[in-house]
Amino acid sequence: MKPKDSIPPRDDEERVRHHVFDGIQEYDKRLPNWWLLTFYGAIVFAIVYWMADQHFSKETNESRVAVELQRIEAAKLNSSDANLDDATLWKMSRNPVFIADGKQVFNTNCAACHFASLRGKSESPLAIGPDLTDNEWLYGTGHPIELLHTVANGTTKGMPAWGPVLGAKKVSQAVAYVLSKHEEPAAE
Amino acid sequence: MIKPKTTQPNRDSVTTIRDDGSRLFLHPSDVKGRFTAMRRWSGWFLIAFYLALPWIPVGGHPAVFLDIADRRFHLFGLTLAFQDAWLLFFGISGLGFSLFFVTALLGRVWCGWACPQTVFLEHVYRRIERWLEGDAIARRKIDAAPWTTLKAFRRGLKQVIFFAVSAVIAHLFLAYYVSIPELWSMMSTQPGEHWSAFVFVLVFTTVLYFNFAWFREQLCLIICPYGRLQSVLIDDHTMVIGYDEKRGEPRGKAGAPDAGACVDCNRCVQVCPTGIDIRQGLQIECIGCAACVDACDTVMDKLDRPRGLVRYDSQEGLTGGKTRWLRPRTLVYAVLMLIGACVATWAATTVRPAALAVTRMVGAPYYLDHEGVRNQLLVRLVNKTDQPARFVVTVDAGNQLVHQTGINQVVEIAPLAEQVQPLILQVDREHYTGPFELKVHVVDEAHTFELERTVEFIGPHPSMMGETEEPAK
Predict the structure, then answer these.
(1) Cβ of A18 under 8 Å from any chain B Cβ?
(2) pLDDT tens digit sequence for B14-64
(3) Which member of A5, A134, A180, B423 has the lowest number of beta carbons within 10 Å of its beta carbon?
(4) Does B443 touch chain A (CB under 8 A)?
């Protein structure tokens, strides 16, 4: 680095800022105009955005949250079991496409405890899950919707909540597959 | 001779910004010489490399294809999945150390020779400008001339070509992320079918156009942080471009007595793309492009004086000393870079074509019934390849007697797909001796790789196991 005294003195010494730190001073140069443009531009944008968003907008934060919640709710309703009932599940359980999909879901996820035969403890005492082909139910009275909720939400005795793992669609397919092994009761 | 209309550079201010803050648009003069020729060739090579990569297939994929949509990253035949994103650490830190090392050794060769800003500006945009508007003097004349139809047409044509070139660069940049066939299908359909890609290319094209048509060296001088790091990365033995003050000063006419080698022809200033005078020493604005070296060598040749009044040399070399290439700084950077490279190579070899995760199912951590203790796990297997793959999953529980259900066969997974399967582990009451660790192994059918995860089998302390409280079903 050059020693300080080798830098020629400048003719515009008055444009040096007064602040001194460790003997270092700073020239008071004008910023590039394009830089100032971005700076003032950002300020103008902030004001315009603030006004448009906070003061002249028909929407409020509350209304935005409400719209967003409705959107989430709609997505949930679309993909959930909320609009399923016993009749629909029985109908699904007679549909070969649903049964085939449900069988695959069942064999991948449920057969570990209930066996691919669905017979669970009736087939082998080593099985973890109960028989799903008989008409004896541990939770509920055999209504499809109760079965669906057991699969989706799990139980305290070890049945895991499959809803979050598989999603509503696969859960309903698996339930349809189990129901396909049962007879739909005549009009109740 | 027409005096160039540039203010003489000084070290107290940026040449390209006038006192009133307005921009002084530089028109660097043409320069010929060995470094200019070498830079042109290397520049064209780099541009060709950049443009060609998405077109060259390596192992069924483009040489570089960062497939964001499918989260697969194809790099010269190596396919990485999102699960391998941690390797980015080595990519980024390796880039850092390489930059440190190269800068300590050779100064800012990156800026002058390889940076896309310089490469595209010098070898594409400035060449177009030169071809349309002539040399620096002619360009300055056009700048100063009043607006006529002809000037408007020439300037308009230049901007249109600049924008078109920017669009090509932006499209190929997008091809790195979507591949050429996908890019082509996007280009031949309505923008409405792929808004985000369309807006991205439009914005990127505009930014490139603005940058290369007008902003230019301002990016290097004011925005890029690398130039600011120059002063901490280099030392007196780093090779930079410098002026041999001992030989050059005092400046004087060719025949003048007592005059140094510099004839003050100002050629080095006229050719500088950032508008500095290299004779005032190393400055933050210098991008190491070597244009001034070629300019001065040409003049020295004409005067029958030895070349190298302005040359690649270290500060030490320029003041008569000897450049030391091996010094603590370069050695430490080199060692750190090598260590990083070794670890990165090792890390890359640990990448497997599948990913395995074993987690506990939602619910109680374990279940206790009249038969024994049960743990319920979820095994998540990801096939990272683009071929269907078959995996064999086994559980190694050492000498513990564990009944295992769930995964007891070969698992077949579609290309780039993942499968989640339950793994139910049960230990009978009479065999249960307390919690223990077990391993879940996955091998592919051809046994080319193996993955292993350790999980803990959780249960109560054996002394806490009461008698059967569950009635058998």
Answers:
(1) no
(2) 889 988 889 999 999 999 999 999 999 999 999 999 989 999 998 888 899
(3) A5
(4) no
ipTM for the complex?
0.75
C-beta atoms of B473 and A109 within 8 A: no
Mutate to test the interface with A, among B243, B362, B368 (most CBs of A within 10 A): B362
- CA distance linking residue A165 with residue A157, whole number of Å: 18
What 3-state class would DSSP assign to B10?
A: coil
**Residue of chain A nearest B367, judged by CA positions:** A158
User: How far apart, in whole angstroms, are the C-alpha atoms of residue B175 and residue B170?
Assistant: 9
The distance of B13 to chain A (nearest Cα, Å) reads 8
Interatomic CA distance for residues B422 and B64, integer angstroms: 37
**Across the interface, do A2 and B21 touch by the CB < 8 Å criterion?**
no
Chain CA centroid to CA B228, Å:
19
A109 contacts B421? CB cut-off 8 A:
yes
Coil vs helix vs strand at A79: helix
Check if the beta carbon of residue B66 is closer than 8 Å to that of residue B176. yes
The verdict on a CB contact (< 8 Å) between B19 and A154 is no
d(CA A140, CA A138): 6
B210 at interface of A, judged by CB pairs closer than 8 A = no
The per-residue pLDDT for range B428-460, each reduced to its tens digit, is 888 888 899 999 988 888 888 889 999 999 998
Closest approach of chain B CAs to the CA of A161, in angstroms? 7
Instruction: Give φ, ψ of B130 to 5 degrees.
Output: -60, -40
